[in-house]
Amino acid sequence: MRNIVSTTNAPGAIGAYSQAVKAGDTVWISGQIPLVPKTMEVVEGDVRSQIEQVFKNFAAVTEAAGGDLSRVVKLNVYLTDLADFPLVNEVMAEHFDEPYPARAAVEVAGLPKGVAVEVEGVLYLGD
């Protein structure tokens, strides 16, 4: 059985997908981009501002699913410029405690709404 996770504290879907899907003790969180939930507009500022907004949105979905960032087991980071990867590490260190989740980072040609970063992941709610 699967349950859909949804919250107004993160951007609503801009396509045919759910914010997250929970199946058993595992939650698959859809890619979060740096949209401000209330306006659905890209956050103002530089790439660091975008990365910070992405992790705020991601955290909101984890909370709506009944967890928090400490229960994230896997992240996939998509960047339009891999040179921004050190910023991802800096911002992650502000939002996550060790041990960090498993992670992959991939440079892509483009992302929705022309943003610089998107993050998706897996949350585990079991013991």
Task: Give a short synopsis of this structure.
The chain has a single domain, classed as 60s Ribosomal Protein L30, Chain: A (2-Layer Sandwich).
What characteristics describe this protein?
about 130 residues; 60s Ribosomal Protein L30, Chain: A; two-stranded antiparallel ribbon; 2 helices
CATH class: Alpha Beta
Distance between the termini: 19 Å
Helix-strand pattern, N to C? EEEEEHEHEE
How much helix, percentage-wise, in residues? 10-25%
Verbal overview:
The chain has about 130 residues and is α+β, with helices and mostly antiparallel strands. The protein has a single domain (about 1-125), classed as RutC-like (60s Ribosomal Protein L30, Chain: A), CATH 3.30.1330. About 25% of the residues lie in helices and about 30% in strands. The chain has 2 helices and 8 strands, in the order E-E-E-E-E-H-E-H-E-E. The chain has helices spanning about 45-65, 85-95, and strands spanning about 1-5, 20-25, 25-30, 35, 40, 70-80, 100-105, 115-125. It has a 6-stranded mixed beta sheet, with helices on one face. It has a two-stranded antiparallel sheet with strand order 4-5. The model has no long low-confidence stretch (mean pLDDT about 95).
Set down the secondary structure blueprint.
Blueprint: E1 2-5, E2 20-23, E3 26-32, E4 35-36, E5 41-42, H1 47-64, E6 72-79, H2 85-95, E7 102-107, E8 117-124
Parallel strand pairs: 6-7
Antiparallel strand pairs: 1-2, 2-3, 3-8, 4-5, 6-8
Helix pairs in contact: 1-2
